[in-house]
């Protein structure tokens, strides 16, 4: 059985550079699209990010096969296959992909290609494509959920709240994120996180921040119109609060608030909960766009406290164009500084369940600062930092 031939698998693993420094993946895609043109139309025009993602995934799968660990890669590939349904992948695409990848690997391995390596390539590619295709065919849930934009609120210069009515309700756990494609940027899927728990009537809300130079986020914030049709897919992620797991610290940077807000809203279903302390941060006070809602929730739920944090003490001139978010009397005063500094000023939070959500840099530095203060890493949760 060639999948037990670790040496042969190692030859294949060695030529799949996770950073695709040898251009193998580029050559594979070119060959695949020359065999069959239709898969090319499923990808966005620029495939640089996809080449890197594919190289990374393939390298990881082959590394696991070399180490004779099948369980995790099979689970990963099955999930990938189910998720790939939303791209419009057809069963025959797997056949042409397998042929193109086999031939590209054979060319790359060159003189080191033996019958044993050929057999390992054939069986591993059968496994990869077979698991993805089989899981996709066996999945009964919808491949995607379409919905119509019913509200687009520009809550600050770079921030928008977008509400949609889905054609049918989408089940997800509070705190999970989904893949989204918007009409302004076809085929460019991005992860966004519902800011409310799954709703039986199909209502869903997203909070989006336009990142500098970002294609899709700027299109959403600046160009979304009522009646736009969005496509959503694949709830993922495991951010959660264990209601029996002790008190909770939540740290949200900008629209990183979305999953934490969804979890908090879900917790309001119970009268008694662990204490939850939420730090919500932005650059300017005016960017703390959701404070009125958070304060309303806190006013009715004594287990929740909210500390607003802004890096700058005052607002820029453009703030006048957007809603005022000055705090009502009697609630936590706004703190000034970087989130990680303000949060750790209160202590190490080592006894808490800790949930951090925001841009990749903010999550990384906040996590490091909390760990430096003694917070155990196993008590800290955050989403993957990149897709
Ligand atoms: C699990 C998860 C959940 C997410 N949920 C949300 C959400 O609810 N709301 C939301 O607004 N965004 C969310 N994002 C980020 C979102 O998916 C996009 O990455 C982001 O909107 C940028 O896409 P873009 O097309 O505008 O940028 P691209 O055109 O893909 O990238 C342009 C530039 O922006 C940089 N960049 C990409 N993402 C970020 C980022 N998050 N912060 C800073 N710089 C970045 C890139 O490195 C690149 O230099 C989430 C990301 C992940 C991984
Ligand atoms: C049947 C053939 C396949 C087709 C048509 C296909 C198509 C696509 C498309 C259109 C995307 C989205 C690209 C983007 O958003 O920029 C994608 C993403 C991705 N593909 Fe494939 N793919 C196929 C098989 C595979 C296989 C065999 C693997 C790896 C073993 C793989 C791994 C990935 C990964 C890791 C991503 C990024 C994560 C995601 O968006 O789901 N694909 N693929």
From TrEMBL:
The keyword Nucleus does not apply. GO terms for molecular function: 2 iron, 2 sulfur cluster binding; heme binding; monooxygenase activity; nitric oxide dioxygenase NAD(P)H activity; oxygen binding; oxygen carrier activity. Residues 142-242 form the FAD-binding FR-type domain. It is an enzyme of class 1 (oxidoreductase). Residues 1-137 form the Globin domain. Its EC number is 1.14.12.17. It holds the Pfam family NAD_binding_1. SUPFAM superfamilies: Ferredoxin reductase-like, C-terminal NADP-linked domain (SSF52343), Globin-like (SSF46458), Riboflavin synthase domain-like (SSF63380). The keyword Heme applies. It catalyses: 2 nitric oxide + NADPH + 2 O2 = 2 nitrate + NADP(+) + H(+); 2 nitric oxide + NADH + 2 O2 = 2 nitrate + NAD(+) + H(+). Its cofactor is heme b; FAD. Keywords: 2Fe-2S, Heme, Iron, Iron-sulfur, Metal-binding, Monooxygenase, NAD, NADP, Oxidoreductase, Oxygen transport, Transport. Belongs to the globin family. This is nitric oxide dioxygenase.
């Amino acid at each position: 059985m060639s999948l037990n031939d670790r040496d042969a698998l190692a030859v294949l693993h060695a030529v799949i550079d996770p950073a695709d420094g040898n251009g193998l993946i580029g050559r594979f895609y070119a060959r695949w699209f020359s065999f069959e043109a239709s898969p090319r139309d499923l990808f966005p025009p620029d495939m640089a990010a996809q080449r890197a993602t594919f190289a990374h995934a393939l390298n990881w799968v082959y590394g696991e096969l070399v180490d004779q660990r099948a369980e995790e890669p099979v689970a990963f590939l099955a999930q990938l296959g189910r998720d790939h349904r939303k791209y419009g992948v057809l069963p025959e695409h797997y056949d042409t992909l397998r042929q193109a990848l086999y031939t590209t690997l054979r060319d790359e391995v060159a003189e080191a290609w033996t019958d044993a390596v050929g057999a390992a390539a054939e069986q591993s590619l059968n496994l990869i494509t077979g698991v993805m295709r089989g899981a996709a065919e066996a999945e009964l849930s919808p491949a995607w959920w379409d919905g119509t934009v019913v509200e687009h609120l520009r809550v600050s210069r770079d921030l928008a709240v977008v509400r949609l009515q889905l054609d049918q309700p989408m089940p997800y756990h509070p705190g999970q994120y989904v893949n989204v494609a918007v009409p302004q940027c076809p085929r460019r899927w991005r992860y966004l996180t519902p800011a409310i728990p799954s709703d039986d009537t199909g209502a869903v809300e997203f909070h989006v921040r336009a990142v500098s130079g970002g294609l899709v986020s700027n299109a959403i914030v600046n160009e979304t119109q009522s009646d736009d049709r969005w496509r959503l897919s694949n709830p993922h992620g495991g951010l959660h609060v264990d209601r029996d797991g002790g008190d909770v610290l939540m740290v949200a940077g900008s629209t990183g608030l979305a999953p934490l807000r969804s979890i908090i809203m879900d917790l309001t279903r119970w009268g008694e909960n662990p204490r939850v302390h939420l730090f919500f941060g932005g650059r300017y006070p005016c960017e703390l766009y959701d404070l009125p809602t958070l304060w309303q929730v806190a006013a009715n739920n004594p287990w929740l406290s909210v500390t607003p944090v802004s890096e700058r003490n005052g607002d820029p001139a453009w703030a006048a164009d957007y809603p005022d978010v000055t705090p009502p009397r009697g609630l936590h005063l706004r703190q000034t500084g970087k989130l990680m500094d303000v949060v750790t000023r209160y202590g190490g939070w080592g006894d808490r369940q800790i949930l951090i959500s925001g841009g990749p840099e903010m999550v990384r530095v906040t996590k490091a600062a909390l760990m430096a203060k003694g917070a155990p890493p196993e008590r800290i949760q955050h989403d993957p930092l990149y897709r």
